[in-house]
Design brief:
10% strand, alpha/beta, 6-stranded mixed sheet, Uracil-DNA Glycosylase, subunit E
Length: 224
Amino acid sequence: MTLDERFGRLNREVVGCRRCPRLVAWRERVAREKRAAFRDQDYWGRPVPGFGDPAARMLVLGLAPAAHGGNRTGRIFTGDRSGDWLFGSLHRTGFANQPTSVARDDGLALHDCYITAPVKCAPPDNKPLPSERDNCQPWLRAELALLPALQVVVALGAFAWDQALRQLGPVRPRPRFGHAAEAPLPAGRTLLGSYHVSQQNTSTRKLTEEMLDEVFFRARELLQ
């Protein structure tokens, strides 16, 4: 079985997951009720698997799909303002062929980059419960096992930082999250931190385009 086929099988298993009753109920409710701007669209309303280059040396780790972004389109960071920021930066730093991500069939291709989230379903208020996080850990673990070339992990936010350390650690003393924080991981890998590309951070300029680009340019340096 090729790597692409193994990812395809894993993604089909992820999409069929119903382990967390609260998340299942929420994602499906959002898909039924919809946002007014998207009332004519069919929402995905299921778990959202990762996507990208199967041979990637860089992993971008978020938190969970957005209710009207990934939960609508079926692709993480797709169809919302957070994705505009992320893919704009990935395009400027050479990891994506285009600066936008609006739908699963929009022609976006990632180079040397794979994107996923520790929680595969949109959670209410973007806050998964610890039990929901733990239920999803096997999926993230399986994705990491299919990325043998992985060298750099970019964690968008403290939640992603903690999950990267859980899955790829341990690291002692435990490194603290911060924007542009850098920590060594076992097996010669490196963990980089960035503020999340949420509207709360970008609209207040806690995170700027220059700050985000800095993190991905540093990732590229580490890959060379």
